[in-house]
Specification:
This protein is of the alpha/beta class. The chain has one domain: Rossmann fold. It has eight helices and seven strands, in the order βαβαβαβαβαβαααβ. Strands 3-2-1-4-5-6-7 form a seven-stranded parallel sheet, with helices on both faces. Helix 3 runs parallel beside helix 4. The relative contact order is 0.14.
């Protein structure tokens, strides 16, 4: 699935799923803007990995919860590579709390990064993305379950699924497809942080294969969705979760 000549922005690309997505898009030929918020060293490592196999990438700092920094992210990518064809809204925040323990600050941080960041990155894509582009947003398979302590995080991802659906016909006239990937439990720092081995093991048993997903599982599905073979899919949420329920 060649992406030669394409330019991608991957938010939150310094680690986890975003890192793997950036590397695989580059292996398929895309030039990649590797966005990070604070982990400059890790972003530089991703760029170095891409350059080792002959790919092109640049690390770009931006806190996507701030609209002016989202604008700067697109500006820097356009300055470096001249166009944007693929946007992957991967950057996200998750902390699990019972409703009694959720603070206003925690609530606002979830929505600022997970929803506001995604929405205004899509706005920039409407302005600057090349005809025939692709946008991938990120939700979660937790949205289809009833798990305690996930209320705020799941609410943000439900919002992302709806904005993906509602924006599909706005992007259609520019031949831009927009879809949402909803991973199940993936073995990343974001997911594993603060969870006991017993809890992690219980999540392993909730899917068809008895294991956690790996970043490559998600990146492989995303690579298909940004290819020309998926141009008739838009406004959809694809659950990439190994049969999790």
């Amino acid at each position: 699935m060649s992406l030669n000549g394409k330019v991608a922005i991957v938010t939150g690309a310094s680690r986890g799923i975003g890192r793997q997505v950036a590397i695989q898009l580059a292996r398929s030929g895309a030039k990649v803007g590797v966005n990070y918020s604070s982990s400059r060293g890790k972003a530089d490592e991703v760029v170095g990995t891409i350059e080792q196999f002959g790919g092109q990438a640049v690390a770009i700092q931006a806190d996507v919860s701030k609209v002016n920094e989202v604008e700067a992210l697109f500006f820097e990518t356009l300055e470096r590579f001249g166009r944007v064809d693929i946007l992957v809204n991967n950057a996200g925040f998750m902390e699990n709390h019972a409703i009694a323990d959720v603070s206003e600050e925690n609530f606002d941080r979830h929505f600022a990064l997970n929803v506001k960041g995604t929405y205004f990155a899509c706005q920039q894509a409407m302005k600057y993305m090349a005809q025939g582009g692709t946008i991938i947003n990120f939700s979660t398979s937790v949205s289809g379950t009833m798990l305690p302590t996930y209320s705020v995080y799941a609410a943000t991802k439900g919002a992302v699924e709806q904005l993906t659906r509602q924006l599909a016909k706005e992007f259609g006239p520019k031949d831009i497809v927009i879809n949402c990937i909803a991973p199940g439990q993936v073995a990343t720092d974001l997911f594993l942080n603060g969870k006991s081995p017993e809890l992690v093991d219980s999540f392993r048993r909730m899917n068809a294969f008895g294991r956690l997903g790996e970043p490559e599982d998600i990146a492989n599905a995303l690579e298909l969705l940004v290819s020309d073979k998926a141009r008739w899919i838009t406004g959809q949420t694809i659950r990439v979760n190994g049969g999790f329920n």
